[in-house]
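Hi W.,

Here's what went into the run:
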Amino acid sequence: MLKIQNLQAGVEGREILKGIDLEVNAGEVHAIMGPNGSGKSTLSSVIAGKEEYEVSGGQILFEGEDIDELAAEERAHKGIFLSFQYPVEIPGVSVTNFMRTAINETRKARGLEEMPANEMLKKIREKSELLEIDRNFLSRSLNEGFSGGEKKRNEIFQMAMLEPKLAILDETDSGLDIDALRIVSNGVNKLRSKDNAVIVITHYQRLLDYIVPDFVHVLLDGKIVKSGTAELAHELEEKGYDWIKQEKVSN
Amino acid sequence: MELKDKLVSSFPAIGDGADTRSTLHRIRIEAMKQFEYKGFPSKKEEEWKYTSLNALLKSDYSLFPEGKNKLDLEDVKRYFIHDIDSYRLTFVDGRYDEELSDMAHEGFDISLMSTAIENPEYREVIERYFNKTVNAKDSLTSLNTAFLKEGVFVRIPKGKLIGKPIQILHFSTGNGEALMLQPRNLIVVSENAQVQFIERHQSLSDHEVLTNSVTEIFAEKRAVVDYYKIQNDKLKASLIDNTYISQEGESNVSVHTFSFGGKLTRNNLNFYHRGERIESTLKGVTILGEKQHVDHHTLVNHAFPNCESHQDYKGIYADRSTGVFNGKVIVEREAQKTNAFQQNNNILLDDRATVNTKPQLEIFADDVKCSHGCTIGQLDDEALFYLRSRGIPTKEAKALMMYAFANNVLESVRIPEVKVRINKLIAKKLGVDMGFDGE
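Here's what came out:
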């Protein structure tokens, strides 16, 4: 589904990603772990199409197509979803209105009719129940005055509504208490299927107890330096990243 | 001939059958003298520093258009808020059009200014209220007073709640020439009475139109008045709107100004407090493009204790459009416990668009809460990316953000159909087709 080859990218002339290779297939969950500043958020932003990042080498193939030239919205239309580390507050746009606009614009781009209002309502009800979201919440302005946990739950709610093929969860666990973490993970797990894939970006192993990855990759200084199974996450939790750095140096 | 000279020599008060001994006649003579003395305001005056009338004064306006063009309701219906039950007063080229109007009413006065000034029955009320709120030194107001001819006269008796909004529509057909129109409205809302107005000036031709309108509103004790101004005129139409509001104790008056069109629009909105526990609300959404210009000049004069005023103006400026917000708040020494809030936020979509925003607070009382804030910025890229990453294309995402930016001004609109109409106008002005539903 996603194939990243020797990706090099940066911002304002500063190279952050220094040759990433990653392949994610349908049905898989990949975790990308790494210390601060290793390039995790840059990688997710580049995949989602944030324009201030410049790709200087390599390529990103999504379902076989090079997406370098595609705008963020076009990538969304193809089924790429990014759950933001810091969701933006947009006063005056209700969660419901936002979701309706996003879904219908996506459908329009795919040559489909607008979703009928009753179907939309039903879907909103189902998905908000899945994320244990209160109805009042849906008429509030998007992310405005939301707690950290509410913002993250709202991100996964959006994911549930948009049903992406590839979801990238950027530090979705940060700022979550244990209950919110359970709700969010439960939501993600229910959305997993053999047809979609998830990339979980995180500092900590904690989230991976709930969303169990098939593969774990360690990102250090803009490169994936080690890949393994869920076991690797536990190892990192125990030993930190230093041993990998040393391993890398000694190699 | 210069416009000023043309106006002075056309002054209608003498020889038009007016009763030369009446108070009204004296007021008009005085007003004419004032205009003759001061002339049109120029950029040298502080209050007109950013708005020049020069270009408008060059046209050879017809001051008293002969006859009026016939309009079909079907053709102009779209300029009304037509999906609500309302009273309609329609003027075409300055003259009342009965066929386009619907004034059937009872229990209060809704009539024409021409009737009110000619009918002895109204002499007392005219003498008591007419021209009593205005700034007599303002030359444009004086000019309007001197040329007093037509407009709307509304008087709501004590305790009467008017269930339907009153729509005031001014059409200009041009009739093949440039037009100058000077409507004059007088609205008296007695104790405990309530009423809503919707006002619009609409040119139907490609000729220049200059409207110099004056509206006086008297809100007596505990009266509630909502006034909505929809300004979405053609690119050759200009409007100078002078609105004067006098409020007595515990009254509540709101004015919303939606400025989306026209060539040059100047809104002089003045609130004077004459009692305690008054609430005044002044809100506006301005969305301009091309070379359009809108100037909002507001004044709230807090003269009594325990009153509140809320001002919130949002502006979005594209292309070479220009905007002005000048918000003056005076809190007199007696006006303790005043709450006065003022906010003006602007988004510039283009390097060539400009806004001049100036809060002007003159506070002479010491126990007051006054705040003001103004911002000029661009759309937030981070927020834009967020919306786009959810599949909303750039254009629609920008529109959604701009809509959101202007939205809190709409929250205080109390007529749902007006809110829907404004939503549609905003979407149209922003060039998108989206299901804004006023949530």
